[in-house]
Amino acid sequence: MLYSLARPLLFTLAPERAHELTLSLLKSTHKLGLMRQNIAAKPVTCMGIEFPNPVGLAAGLDKNGAYIDALAGLGFGFIEIGTITPRPQQGNPLPRLFRIPQAKAIINRMGFNNAGVDQLIENVKAAKFKGVLGINIGKNADTPVEKAVDDYLICLEKVYNYASYITVNISSPNTKNLRSLQSGDALTELLETLKKRQLELAEEQQHYVPLVLKVAPDLEAEDIQFIAKQLLQFKIDGLIVTNTTLSREGVENLPFGDEAGGLSGAPVFEKSTACLKAFAEVLNGQIPLIGVGGILSGEQALAKQNAGANLVQVYSGLIYTGPTLIQDCVSAMKTT
């Protein structure tokens, strides 16, 4: 209710400014003890982790882990922070975030703007949150794609003891050539190297942290077959389906619809859900799936679950619907 009143005012601001202001207000409200959503428990065990409910926050909203406690107060079953890179980087030039309210969509070309992995770890250590925390890792923009695995290794090693699970993001369209890591020898080398290091860290730390891959919706059938085979070969623990799309279907001829970047929100729902279903059919329950992309209602969260998702994540839907979306999704989803 409060968000529905505030949203028109927030939408008068530049999107990135509104994003920062919303998080700051949420943090202040949380500190005053004035905001907490009590979400009914609907526990789900996935990747060896018990989630209090199956609805999580997708990466990108809190890139540096600076708002973990405030976001936890909204009732998420899990929170994913990042994408984080080894070194701080500013991301792409402004403007780089665009609302398309007529389509309940967002286009972003943020470019992994973040304060670096060391700052994220300090923020995680300062948080009081004891729930399920995913950390999403990527590569710096100036690291050649041929050496991308080095950046992922640095992040994997540094965040290992602070994450409930770690997501390998190779699907953002806003870092040059990043999506090339989704195919061929590049994917094989990346997964083989990261899996080997994950197992070494598990042995060293006596604690196993699941490794998850995040893919794009812009995949052909043969891409899905190949990625699924690699996931099974290297025993990757989970798959997030999907990131944003390069398609402009649903926003053609709308203001900002031709901006460069990844499209999220309502227009990506069908595409991402079809991709999810295709992976579910190929993987046949052998690897847990997290469905994300275009969820703006409980019914759509249930549709992701029916397509094969064990868990779901929301982000753009929060911008248009507000925090009540979390309860709606939890209520709609079936107990598994």
TrEMBL record:
Compartments reported by the entry: Cell membrane
Molecular function as annotated in GO: dihydroorotate dehydrogenase (quinone) activity
UniProt main location, coarse: membrane
Keyword Transferase listed: no
GO cellular component: cytoplasm; plasma membrane
Keyword presence, Ribosomal protein: no
Pathway(s) per entry: Pyrimidine metabolism; UMP biosynthesis via de novo pathway; orotate from (S)-dihydroorotate (quinone route): step 1/1
Binding site for substrate: K63, N108, R109, M110, G111, F112, N169, N174, N243, T244
Protein name: Dihydroorotate dehydrogenase (quinone)
Species this protein is from: Acinetobacter johnsonii
Upper taxonomic lineage: Bacteria, Pseudomonadati, Pseudomonadota, Gammaproteobacteria, Moraxellales
Gene name of this polypeptide: pyrD
